[in-house]
Amino acid sequence: MDLAIRDLRKRFGAVEALRGVELTVEAAEFFAVLGPSGAGKTTLLRIIAGIERADQGRILLGGRDLTEMPVRARNTAMVFQTFALYPHLSTFENLAYPLREARVPAAEIRRRVGEIAEMLRLTHTLERKPATLSGGEQQRCAIGRALIRRPRILLLDEPLTNLDAKLRHDTRAEFKRLHRELGSTTIIYATPDQLEALSMGRRIAVLRQGRIVQISTPERLYAEPGDDFVASLVGDPPINLVTATLRQGSGGPLIDLPFAGLDAQPWQAALGAFPPGTRLRVGIRPQAIWPRNGRRAGPAFAARVFLTEPLGDVTILDIVAADSCRMKMVLPHEQAWRIGVNDALDCEIDSEQICLFAEATGTAIRRDAAAAAG
Description:
By secondary structure, the protein is an alpha+beta fold. The protein has eleven helices and 20 strands.
């Protein structure tokens, strides 16, 4: 364990920004913090860095208590949403600034600036001012300025927000390369973008209104979300959440969707705690719905196409079932190219990809086998 956060709390006036945050980050891990705007991501990173002071809780780094330590003594560095480069200084001087402040000898400064510039592919920009750099080069310069002190933990606060889509894609790969080359540096990456979190984080903490609601790997967050908030946050297009009702059939529990019936046998043990008539939410991934082909995988239903969104290799179809239940499904282009708006579709759902939640609390109801394994 490298970093441990215990019962971290922070309030700004009437706003409770962090409400008992608990997490651990392993040494040299790429750890992502995912949450919408206002969830508390920036506050969490600023408290780890020492820029903000927590009202309550402890921060331990390698067993050492950082809670009351000043910023300079923490061996952490932070890159902000805005790159905050000094506009009157060259790339070389921006990179060298933290070392000059620490009174590092000139020869060592030249060596370390050259080393970090080569790692970040900035060597050709060393004599240029920030205004002449591209967005990606400015960002890499800001990261280099943080890394040149060789911090144990690098904190990245939504660092791709100001980049265009193509540059964001390229920079995600750069971050993974950089983390691999750094070897011993722990990276904590805060983002509201689930694609960034899933593609880069080895583990992800989902933050909601100042609380950690789930920490897991990208694969498990997608397949086994802890509640309907996580389910709707992770996955693109977002999961379809359909309100349903539990009832007792002659052969066991059943779940009535507006457009079909669902056998509740996989959740039978867990649903024993819920009386008939309980309102549930059924989560259906868009990738789990497809045109019926006689190989029934789960509930079948009739739908009509409301909208098509061709994306090249795949097409997103907005469909309407039971007159008013709108959902999304994703099909490969070769299956979808003949389908148009207002076309009727016979659809089926892969039951293995269905998630179940209690409507009252949003909490996941686990399949019996998954609950036993857990």
